[in-house]
Structure prediction request, 187 residues.
Amino acid sequence: MTRKQKIGIGMALIAVIIMLIWLWLLRGPAPAVPPAVIAPAIEEETQAPTSVPTQEMAAEQAKRDESAGLQSLAKTFTERYGSFSTEANFANLSDVMIMMTPSFSAQTQADIEAASLGENFYGVTTKVVSVSVDQLDEEAGLAKLTINTQRQEAVDSPQNISVKYQDLVLNFEMISGTWKVSSAVWQ
Prediction:
């Protein structure tokens, strides 16, 4: 092996070592390990027995889950249903018809066909502020929710905006295992 080859190999090893040191320094300090906490011994007679969730707790959890799903559906429906623009040609209502009962959907379609768009610009953007469950009867398949909204209304120009707060009362019916909006009334 020539002297030039030995120097080249030595330089390559030094470069590799420098890179390894550099990578090791980049990873930062090791995370601090919290000190171990040693719990005092508990006597057998003072230890509470572990309880298995009861049917009542499971039913309550299922009711909360159902209510959360219904609230999520109500939020989605309200923001789409309540947002409108003369430039969109009632697309907001067409988008939510799948969430409506057949009778409410037919009524909404009839309202769209009877409505006329004005010549001037008009638009409303609706955001949900809060949702309250007024009635939830899963056995009967009925629910009523009140949705508090903030609505930004633009008249004649998208820059001419006013803000108002308005409630929407939604009634739901369970159809084939799915909640559907049966009516929507602005308050």
Summary: The chain has a mean pLDDT of 85. DSSP finds four helices and five strands in the chain. Strands lie at 84-85, 122-137, 142-155, 161-175, 178-186.
